[in-house]
Amino acid sequence: MTSPKLSATAAVLFAGLAAGGAWAQSASTAVQTVDAMNALWGRHPHTRANHAKGVVVEGRFTPEPAAAALSTASIFAGPPVPVTVRFSDSTGIPTLPDGSPPANPHGMSIKFHTADGNAVDMVINSLPFFPVATGEEFLALLQALAVSGPDAPKPTKAETFMAAHPSVAKAFGAIATPSSFARERYNGVNAFIFVNKDGARQPFRLRVVPVDGVEHLTPADAARMPPDFLVDELPQRLAKGPVVFRMTAQLANPGDQTKDSTQPWPEDRRVVDLGMITLSTAVADSDAAQRQLYYLPNRLQPGIEVSDDPLIDARVRAYVISFGRRAQ
Q: What is the CATH code for 4-327?
């Protein structure tokens, strides 16, 4: 049965996608992107086209005063904010072993539940930066991978694409399997904009870091783990006590570009502590919760705005297509 909230949201977004012009062109790219994911990983009923396997937990976000100085968003204004967080493996294969290389990068989607009954979504992952800069390039990468099986002529389409886009191998070469979803660092690869009470605008990229530290497995150790060790371990960990992450923002300097997510800002840029995410409860029926949950990178509120990074819009449009298919 389709969720009424999911149906209503998808209907509104599909109406926009059908408006014509640039919208229609982006919609076509989004449809092809989800088609390419389905070609790579199969189409599974009621399942996301990417990051299909995951686990849902709940907790709260407690902001730091420095966050309110950067942004008028209500999630930074005062008391703790309830959050619903979904951790996930990459690919659209819901039975993929958690320790397999294609399960990287792992995702963390955070829904902040605001006092007015709305929400703010932040959708991040363990990549230090994104492998390509536009939705069209991401589509081309997926299409190349889909025709580059073991029997494909050499050089394969994927090898040719990656030779022309060195950021792909560099990005995927910087990730590894964590020992727990609670021991991974998650990054906002897209730039967003804080707006404060004076109207000052500050580009930022999000970082969410575990208080207990990052811990990765070697490929050999990851391969020996049970197939569901990540999704099983997190509820077991929470039964013993809360999991805490520190949420920070790396702030751009004047002149730093915001439109190319393959180009991270230098590490000497200022990092501000936004607050603590304290996760305390595993959702009783995670599978049911995942079917109902949807996250949009542009679901924001005044005080947080999208930047000129074209991947934000490309992600949203592809998510809408995926929403529609898994709601059927």
A: 2.40.180.10
